Amino acid sequence: MITYDNALTILRREVSHFQLAKEMVYLSAINGRVSAANIISPLNIPSFDNSAMDGFAVCTDDFESNHTTLKVKARIIAGDAVGNLELSSGTCYEIMTGASIPKGANSIIPVESANKTDELVSFSVAPRKNEFIREAGSDFRQGVSVIDSGTLLRTHHILPLAALGIGKVAVYSKPKVAFIPTGREIVDGLNQSLGEGQIYNSTLPFAEAFLSRSHVEFLPQKTIADDPDAFQTTLSKLADEDVSLIISSGAVSVGSHDFIYSSLEEMGATILFHKVAIKPGKPILFARLPKGIFYLGLPGNPISTAVGLRFFVRPLLAALMQQKPEQSFLARVKTPLSKQPGLRLFLKAKINVSSQGVLEVSFLDGQESYKTSPFLIMNSWAMLSETTTAVAENDVIEVFPLS
Predict the structure, then answer these.
(1) Where are the beta strands (DSSP E) in 202-267?
(2) DSSP β-bridge partners for residue 261
């Protein structure tokens, strides 16, 4: 049995040798995708000096000569070409927000500080150089990387990319991820009546929804009823479908019906680790199939599967797409807890912000790996290290969002 940190090291090391394909997508489709190359600014933004206010474009030298009244030469609005326009002493241009700055102007006086009469305008303030001027390149500089490869793209990235004239970006192709539930007791049809000893398949719809946030191509498989031959047939079929990762739920422990380990060995898989010092989810298994497909076998209890998806599958997919490791949050404990050393605990938790603005975390009742009811109110996972034996109120611990 290895530690969680060692398991992640192995997982990331193995995945580092795998290269996902890349594709170009339109900006409207980037939400949730991962950039596959640095995105370089193709131009300066703004691409020209322009006015930040409605007002008057002036030269500060005129005000050093006590010119507080200037002649208005013309009006410049956004979109006007100003290549032939130039200030002369004692003159100014009326200018609108976003309009180009004419030659000779080095400041803008807002309209609120001006009194215009016919062709003359007087000012109640003395301007400062570069005041209310948006300088070319003050938002983006041409040739600078604006988004690094491996960045998780969201809708807020669209606005600056569109401003730069970038209509498509390179992203990693969606990896194909198969999910295989196992167990004679599992009923896939959630509208079916349950027979004696049967339970509904809760892990499959949860896995599909969870992985949809990672933008994978999800390949759900029918539940395999503790049948090694059917399991190997399914794996052989998936190997021909160019999948990147196969996940199973159940049958990874050491019971008489836990067939995953032996079946993988028979198929020539390399077992990279089996059993990690965590709770829940200790029997988790990571392997590489002969065709280079990664395999994660998760324990069958619903919460063990959820922990496996959150703290093993998510890091694996992030590593596939060259993303940086996730950073946890820190929160103050509200509910003291004792534990035995040796295992890293992943606890169903609820975080809130106190009236003082401090992030606080409470451990929920019902931590057993079969209990899903806390999922109705939990909003985070709390993590306690292998060496921790107790946490007291106001101790600071690591917490993670649910997905």
Answers:
(1) 217-220, 245-249
(2) none
Amino acid (one-letter) located at 35: S
Residues 6+ apart with CB under 8 A from 250: 181, 182, 183, 186, 298, 299, 300
Residue 204 amino acid letter: L
The mean per-residue pLDDT over the stretch 134-144 comes to 98
pLDDT in tens, 97-110: 999 999 999 999 99
Cβ atoms of residues 35 and 153 within 8 Å? yes
Q: Which CATH superfamily is domain 50-134 in?
A: Molybdopterin biosynthesis moea protein, domain 3. (2.170.190.11)
Q: Is 161 helix (H, G, I), strand (E, B) or coil?
A: helix
pLDDT tens for residues 62-89?
Answer: 998 776 899 999 999 999 999 999 999 9
Residue 354: CB atoms within 10 Å: 10
CA 343 from centroid of its chain's CA atoms: 28
Q: What is the pTM of this model?
A: 0.89
Between CA 7 and CA 320 the distance in angstroms is 16
Phi, psi of 69 (to 5 degrees): -125, 125
Give the SS3 label for residue 111.
Answer: helix
H-helix segments, 23-124 = 60-64
Cβ(263)–Cβ(285) below 8 Å: no
**Amino acid in the structure at residue 308:** G
Cα–Cα distance for residue pair 323/320, rounded to 1 Å = 8
What is the token pair recorded at 152?
Answer: 């998780």
Cα distances from 59 to residues 63, 106, 133, in angstroms, run 8, 5, 12
Three-state DSSP class for residue 290? coil
Distance in angstroms (rounded) separating the CA atoms of residues 256 and 62: 93
Nearest Cα residue to 100 out of 142, 51, 159, 163: 51
Domain 4-21+173-320 falls in which CATH fold? Answer: Molybdenum Cofactor Biosythetic Enzyme; Chain A (3.40.980)
Q: Which tokens hold the place of 66?
A: 């006590």
Nearest to 140 by CA among 168, 109, 162, 119: 162
CATH topology of domain 22-41+143-172: Molybdopterin biosynthesis moea protein, domain 2 (3.90.105)
- Residue 193 has a CB neighbour count (10 Å cut-off) of 7
- Residue 23, Cβ density class (10 Å: 0-12 exposed, 13-18 middle, ≥19 buried): middle
- Contact by Cβ (8 Å): 252, 183: no
Tokens of 235: 């794996």
- Owner of token pair 């008057």: 56
